[in-house]
Structures are given as C-alpha cells and as structure tokens.
C-alpha cells in the first residue's frame, strides 16, 4: 500500500509517500516557511495558511514524480488533522480529502504528535544501525516547539501520559532564550549552534523540578535566569556562547533525569525521542549514554525527521490504514486534540 502523507499544521509544508509493502519511504519533500515569518519574529497564522495553499499541490506533484508514481497509484491518504493552526490544518485536510474522494481511496486524519512519536519506528536509527526500529512497549519523550511530554506507549495508539511541561515547551524555551540574547528567528537551532562554541560550567543554571518526585517539567523560569545572566554579562560573543552552553546543559540534564525516572516508573529500558529538540546533538549523546548505561536503548529519527515533516504523517497514517482504520469524507480538523483519545490499532 502506497500512502501519501500531508503535513500542514504550522509553518512547514511536508509531503511524503510511504510504501507498506517495501516497509520504507519512496520520497519526501519539505517546504519551510521560515523566511516568510522571520520578519515578524514568529509564525503569522494567516500567512501560514496562504503559503500552504501555494506550495502544497506543487510539492505533491514533486513527491509523486520522485516516487515514480502517477496520482492514481496512491492507495491511501494521511493528513495532519491536529493539533495545530486551524487554517493551516484545513489546507492539508481539504486537499487530502478531495484527493481521496476523487480517487475513491481511504483517508485518515493523523494526530500530529502521534506522527512525531512514531517517527523513530519508521526506519533504522542511523546512529544505531542494524538493530531495526524499536517496538512497543517503550517510553517516548516528545520534545517539540509546542509540547514536552513523557508518554508510556503500550502499543501503537495506547498512550499514557506520564508527565508534561507546566509552562513552556523545551523547544519554546530554546526559541525564547535565543531571542532574548538577540539571535535571529527561529532561535532554537541557532542557540544550539552557539552552545557548541560555549564552554561548560562558566554559567550554571538550575535543573527545574528535578529535586522532587514526579515527571512534569517547567522551563519558563530558566528563561528568566538566562535573561538575568545575559543582562549582567559583558554581552560579548563568548558570553553569549557560554550562556547558551549553560542553558543547553540545564535543559539536556533535566530531560535526561526525567527520562531515566520515567523508564524506572514504566519498568522499561527502551526510550524513543521525537520532536524538533530531538535534533539536538548534545541531547542525543546524553540520552544514548543514559540508555546504554542501564542496558537499554534509545532511538531517534534522523534529525530532518525530528522537526515537522510529511514522512512521519505518511508512516503513522499507513499503520492505521493498514489496520483498516479510515474516516468518512467530511473535512474535520482539531486544533486541540488529546492523544489519549486515539483508538488502539
Ligand atoms: P509541535 O510539534 O509541538 O506542534 P512544532 O511542530 O513547532 O511543535 P517541531 O517542528 O517538532 O515543533 O520542532 C521545532 C522546535 O524544535 C523549535 O522550537 C526549535 O527551536 C527546536 N529545535 C530544532 N532544532 C533544534 C536543536 N538542534 N536544538 C534545540 N532545539 C531545536
Ligand atoms: Mg516548524
Ligand atoms: Fe511538530
């Protein structure tokens, strides 16, 4: 079965074809709207919707061509139906539903966070090759721009929330911290690049909520700590890099401590990590060491599939379509959507 996946929940237009018979991707393409939103310092929802309208059909044509397929070769469609920006979601849902109707093929509404969560199961982890992707049960760390969650995954579609952020998401903390030190939008990857040049231990920030039990997170206070450190520093390039390093170490440490605690609580040694912050090099290193030290394993998507993409939506949708799940022809999206409400496979 060849499934066309469409992602339009925010500021990335992503399209991919996943082939269930081959067990692999045929092609994927991504168009990022970053340059469009940069002058506003954040995503402007109406501009995002309009740009998805402009880019989605050309991207679908390109992806089909790279897959060696005609539009009629599509066996099923998968699209992000939420959570996300309602106008942006409606573009992907409208196109996917229309194609499904015209081709008389099944289509499935995919939960964006389930897409992220299942991405590490799509292909071999390039940094841990030869073992094959992990299978549930495992613990998932979802660290993206809008979410920071620890989830016990008993099976595909059986998700139990173990803990989550009480305020900012980890990616949001990276972005806001970058902004207050004058780094260009979008700041997360930029801050990580600064941290690569920074010296460890010059600035030490707290590890929020690690000194008491529980699996929730809080990252908004860290931002304030950075603000004060930056204000009181000489504001040189090396100060910025050292502060970035101190911030990154604090976030990575906090996430690692909570992941280990979550594995203990779930009685499990397999961790999967997904979402944009999962592209962070130091986080990857740290979590790999933690998992290996306890005789377990950790799996990440390739960095390009940590941030938003169509491949994860094609894959998550393919699993559900293969299990016979699909929906009627109405175009419905859910800007807010609880992942625990999803049916099991
Ligand atoms: P959500 O999936 O929760 O709706 P989103 O789709 O905006 O949010 P993603 O696309 O998964 O989030 O990830 C984007 C986030 O990842 C941004 O906050 C960005 O700063 C962060 N990010 C990307 N690369 C890195 C990196 N190397 N280090 C740290 N953070 C990063
Ligand atoms: Mg994005
Ligand atoms: Fe995302």
From TrEMBL:
UniProt: substrate binding residues: 142-146, 175, 188, 280
Residue span, Gcp-like domain: 26-315
Domain of life: Bacteria
Keywords for the protein's UniProt record, in alphabetical order: Acyltransferase, Cytoplasm, Iron, Metal-binding, Transferase, tRNA processing
GO cellular component, one term: cytoplasm
UniProt GO MF annotations: iron ion binding; tRNA N(6)-L-threonylcarbamoyladenine synthase activity
Reported cofactor(s): Fe(2+)
Localization of this protein: Cytoplasm
Binding-site residues for Fe cation, renumbered to this chain: 112, 116, 308
Protein family membership: Belongs to the KAE1 / TsaD family.
NCBIfam families: gcp_kae1, T6A_TsaD_YgjD
Protein name: tRNA N6-adenosine threonylcarbamoyltransferase
Organism per entry: Lysobacter spongiicola DSM 21749
